Fold this sequence. Notes:
The structure holds two protein chains of two kinds.
Chain A (H helix, E strand, L loop, with lengths): L8 H16 L3 H23 L2 H18 L9 H23 L8 H7 L6 H16 L2 H11 L5 H8 L3 H18 L10
Chain B lengths: L8 H8 L5 H13 L1 H20 L6 H48 L1 H9 L11 H10 L3
Amino acid sequence: MIEGENETPNESQETDLELVAQAQRGNSAAFMEIVNRHTSKMFYLALSLTGNASDAEDILQETLLGAFEGIQGFEGRASVKTWLTRILMNQVARHRRYREVRSIVQIGPKSEEILKGIAHSGSANDMDIRMDVLNVLQTLPLEYRTVIAMREIQGLAYGEIAEMLGLPVGTVESRLFRARQQLQELLRDYFPKDRR
Amino acid sequence: MNTFSCEFSQRLGALHYCEVPAPERKVLEAHIGLCPACAQQMEQLKALTQLFTTSRTAAVPQIILHRFAREVAWAGVLKLARALSCAAAAVLVVSTGWIWYTESADSQSSVPTASLALRTDSSGSSDSNDPVVQALMKEYGRD
């Protein structure tokens, strides 16, 4: 597990699967517990990928409905987090296609819209970091933004990202490398000073 | 820009994310101990992950959760309504079948009378050879 990762996959995964089993038997409270556990990161992922709070809200809503409707089909081959992320990524793609068809192309990030979606909780410093990270993410090319968000926000493995995006693992790795390079440059004030 | 020409630099990210096999991991870790540039790069990778860890928990607007909780509750009601509709439809089908069956049984019980009527010829005289007709005629006093 990488440093900073606050999840304990084995324990939480088992519990998630138990909750899914209960939800499959019609226990809606169990499903709401799954929602409460995962929505925060999913919302942030949607926010990172769209750069727009209202779009992120729509995508999250559709993702949750899709998950609720498809819960009977969940067989537990992947983790609940991976399953939910897959649904969310499908919704993001659908939303993007819809945007393209409707020609409602947003030019550049709208900081004030992003702000609406950001929690007004936590310390002011945390909020500054959220704003900076979200704004900087919007400046990355979509393919870099997607892989870095899936890795750093959802904590997905290379193989999971590759499978979801239909890419070779090597491509995911090289995109992550370039995405990190750009982020390190854009967020350089947050990084340890170069001692070289 | 954090680009440097060390041959191991491309694999540092994989090392950071625990995506390298154990033998390669040992090689990379040994290299990092000797290469200040790679050690610096590893520090930056950790700092980047820490930035995301700090920032990634955005509170979901409560309106979405409320709306969704309502949808889930309604789904339960709809499921119940669907089950009740199915039960009602089943009762309807069974009732229709039962009515059809009893009516059909009634019409079958009236067949002897009908056949009696059919056995009367056009002049109104009955077929005196039929024992049933004869018995009925005798009972009702008709010759």
